[in-house]
Structure to design on (241 residues):
């Protein structure tokens, strides 16, 4: 065994990204045995709107549809209305910034992205990745920008560039606002920081969760206003609205 491997195993604990139980370094996926089963079962969760499972659900919030003519990438259902344990994966990204969670979610997004691109005849190598940066107060509270980490992990997996194009001066938490307020808040929170870079380029706009689509819409609008050729929203989870 390599020295770095021994050090890692001795000093760094690895946790199941759903329940937090300690797990072995040899687990291929970041789950304990029990949660591994939960993960397998979540493919059977049905969309509350169209009643298809996630593989075939094409429902999107209207704001997201308007960005991309109905093309968007998301990997799993997120259930904001219940205490679904699968939501913990999202929390470990937002609050703890677990490497394992970020890497796992980026891998899930990659699979889904390649599938959707293939379905719509899109060449992913023509795109760059950008993301709605976390607001400053969030970065000082948690110590990191989870969206940037997710975008960079996806960038590494796909071999396409990730660029920071947004500043987020937002003060209110999107989750505390209703649909209308979310859009207003998102529109006043984000600004393009590198406008001349955008013109003529195509972007995957990466975020962790798609709820009303307000954040994705506000950022996509800014990209289009600055001459972007195409914007496709890409998230790990979609709220099962
Ligand atoms: Zn577990
Ligand atoms: Zn659906």
């Amino acid at each position: 065994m390599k020295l770095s491997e021994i050090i890692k195993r001795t000093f760094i604990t690895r946790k199941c990204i759903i329940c937090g139980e300690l797990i072995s370094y040899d687990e291929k996926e970041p789950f304990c045995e029990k949660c591994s089963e939960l993960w397998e079962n979540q493919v059977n969760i049905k969309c509350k709107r169209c009643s298809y499972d996630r593989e075939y659900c094409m429902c999107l919030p209207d704001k997201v549809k308007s960005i991309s003519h109905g093309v968007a990438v998301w990997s799993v259902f997120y259930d904001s209305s219940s205490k679904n344990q699968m939501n913990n994966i999202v929390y470990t990204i937002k609050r703890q910034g677990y490497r394992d969670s970020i890497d796992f979610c980026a891998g899930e997004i990659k699979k889904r992205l390649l599938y959707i691109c293939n379905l719509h005849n899109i060449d992913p190598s023509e795109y760059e990745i950008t993301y709605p940066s976390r607001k400053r107060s969030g970065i000082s509270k948690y110590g990191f920008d989870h969206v940037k980490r997710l975008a960079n992990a996806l960038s590494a997996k796909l071999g396409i560039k990730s660029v920071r194009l947004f500043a987020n001066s937002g003060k209110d938490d999107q989750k505390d606002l209703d649909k209308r307020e979310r859009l207003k808040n998102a529109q006043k929170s984000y600004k393009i920081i590198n406008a001349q870079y955008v013109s003529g380029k195509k972007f995957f706009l990466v975020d962790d969760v798609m709820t009303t689509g307000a954040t994705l819409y506000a950022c996509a609008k800014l990209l289009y206003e600055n001459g972007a050729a195409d914007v496709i929203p890409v998230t790990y989870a979609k709220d099962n609205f």
About this structure: The chain has a mean pLDDT of 92. The domain at 59-239 is CATH 3.40.50.2020 (Rossmann fold). The chain is about 45% helix and 15% strand.
